[in-house]
Specification:
The protein is of the alpha/beta class. The chain has two domains: 264 residues, 3-Layer(aba) Sandwich (Aldehyde Dehydrogenase, Chain A, domain 1), CATH 3.40.605; 184 residues, Aldehyde Dehydrogenase, Chain A, domain 2. It contains 14 helices and 22 strands. The strands form six sheets. Strands 14-15-16-13-12-18-19 form a seven-stranded mixed sheet, sandwiched between helices. The longest helix has 24 residues. It is globular and about 80 Å long. Bound molecules: nicotinamide-adenine-dinucleotide. Belongs to the aldehyde dehydrogenase family.
Length: 496
């Protein structure tokens, strides 16, 4: 029996140019990371399928029934997508859990956020104005916005439904066509979303969803001359490669990349809240979050006490069955990824780090069957250590004491990444100073990992370029055009 609602994905077909059919590449067995049981075999796209999807998209977006719709008409389709996501909320949350092993409590939140994302960008589409710019002569000037055309959206495996929605909603709202390539290991939710879009009235060809290998499908999409923008979320190395190709094509790219975010606890912080916040910041989603607070700086007077409480808290975290609402940490995505996390922990120990907790695979309660790993905290390393500088993307925290604010800011900013940061203090002036000095796209003060679709999200430095979310997020998928209207009855002076 299929372990999820098969009405969401009735067969192993994929969605190419508005048709459900087999992809021409090998089939892929989607695995539940908690016990390695097979969710479903689905077909995957070949390079030829990707080209067909792009060609269909290039025809579809220009038509009167898509880019030609008035904003409020296209918004209606986005509202319908949101409503269908909401109607299928529980089934989608269960499917997302099977797809990547996240605990059900988290996947329910992700599905709700995907629906909210479509509603938000529908509202943006209906309410964003074009501009009448100040005239400097006998003419009128306007600034209007047009769709870009075919967008390739490439997403990672850690929160597929939310990442997909953050790209699809603004790109579709803006009147583009989208070819979505989900991560190879998590294709299911993206296919379910394609069915919803189709049912909501997105015209044939405007959306394709192509599961398959990034190095094949992703590469074909990025290089294809009809693809006019790439919106990518994933690792920094792959993102840099995409940016190189985009430079040759002179094509805009949005890149949401990796992170190694510092969390800072000052000695005046509410330590109960800070302990909870730091644990949540690194260990929720098993640390498989770009914004995971993976470097911890604690002011020396409270360091020993704080670390003792933090390690006790980490040992109490409930790691196990993702279908239980009690579970706080599910498995990692795959055996290969867990091995990579384990290599980093071994490296940290070789570099002179000490384990405060974790560092092993949990045993019992059937967890041997899945890719589980204990919440792990190391200390005793400088910020220059490799495990403080490289993204691990797992449940591994490295803690360091600090003495004064200036040294702290230097160390916190001493990273190639600049995605997010957290500050715990009761001193609002210090919070302001430090938040402004940190090189990061998002800073949380006395909280962590809160997200709002109305607040822009972006990475600095090697964490990315471009913006997602916020009302201007839709402009990332539009081209600006200036119009000059001559109002003078006399001919242009030069022509006379
Ligand atoms: P990844 O870079 O390996 O893959 C991301 C996507 O790119 C996948 O769909 C993959 O198939 C595709 N891809 C791979 N090679 C490609 C190529 N040559 N050309 C085009 N596409 C290609 O990343 P991942 O392992 O899936 O995800 C983890 C990474 O994503 C982490 O670094 C994490 O920090 C980052 N991430 C960033 C954000 C953010 O918003 N900044 C959010 C989530 C995840």
């Amino acid at each position: 029996m299929t372990p999820f609602d098969t009405r969401l994905i009735p067969s192993g077909d994929i969605f190419i140019g508005g048709e459900w059919r087999r992809g021409r590449a090998a089939t892929f067995a989607s695995i539940y990371p908690a016990d390695q049981s097979v969710n479903m075999e689905i077909s995957t796209a070949s390079a030829e399928d990707a080209k067909e999807a792009v060609e269909a998209a290039d025809i579809a977006w220009r038509k009167p029934d898509w880019a030609g719709l008035k904003p409020h008409q296209r918004a209606l389709i986005l509202y319908r997508i949101a409503d269908l996501i909401t109607q299928r909320h529980e089934a989608l949350a269960q499917l997302q859990r099977r797809d990547n092993g996240k605990p059900i409590a988290e996947t329910r939140v992700l599905v709700a956020s995907a629906a909210a994302t479509f509603r938000y960008f529908a509202a943006c589409l209906e309410t964003l104005d074009d501009e009448l710019t100040p005239s400097r002569g006998d003419y009128m000037t306007m600034s209007v916005h047009e769709p870009i055309g075919v967008i390739a959206a490439i997403t990672p495996w850690n929160s597929p439904i939310a990442s997909d929605a953050q790209k699809l909603a603004p790109a579709l709202a803006a009147g583009n066509a989208v070819v979505l390539k989900p991560a190879e290991v998590t294709p299911l939710v993206s296919l379910a979303l394609a069915r919803i879009c189709e049912e909501a009235g997105v015209p044939k060809g405007v959306l394709s969803v192509l599961p398959g290998k990034g190095s094949v499908i992703g590469d074909v999409l990025v290089r294809h001359p009809l693809v006019r923008k790439v919106s990518f979320t994933g690792g920094t190395d792959v993102g840099r490669g995409i940016a190189r190709i985009a430079a040759d094509k002179l094509m805009p790219v949005s890149l949401e990349l990796g992170g190694k975010s510092p969390t800072i606890v000052f000695d005046d912080a509410d330590l109960d809240h800070a302990v909870n916040g730091v644990l949540y910041g690194i260990f929720s989603s098993s640390g498989e979050a770009c914004i995971a607070g993976s470097r911890l700086f604690v002011q020396r007077p409270v360091y020993a006490e704080f670390m003792k409480r933090l390690a006790e808290g980490a040992r109490r975290l409930r790691v196990g069955d993702p279908s239980s609402t009690e579970t706080q940490m599910g498995p990692l995505i795959s055996a290969k990824h867990r091995e990579s996390v384990e290599r980093y922990v071994a490296l940290g120990l070789e570099e002179g780090g000490r384990l405060l907790c974790g560092g092993e695979r949990p045993v019992g309660e059937g967890r041997e069957k899945g890719f589980f790993y204990q919440p792990t905290i190391l200390e005793g390393l400088p910020n220059s250590a490799r495990i403080c500088q490289e993204e691990i993307f797992g449940p591994v925290l490295v803690a360091m004491p600090f003495d004064d604010e200036a040294a702290l800011i230097r160390q916190a900013n001493d990273s190639v990444f600049g995605l997010a940061a957290g500050i715990w203090t009761r001193d609002y002036k210090r919070a302001w100073r430090v938040a402004r000095a940190l090189e990061a796209g998002t800073v949380w003060i006395n909280t962590y990992k809160l997200f709002s679709i109305s607040t822009p999200f972006s990475g600095w430095k090697d964490s990315g370029m471009g913006r997602e979310k916020g009302r201007l997020g839709i402009r990332e998928y539009m081209q600006q055009k200036s119009l000059y209207w001559g109002l003078n009855d006399a001919p242009l002076p030069w022509a006379n």
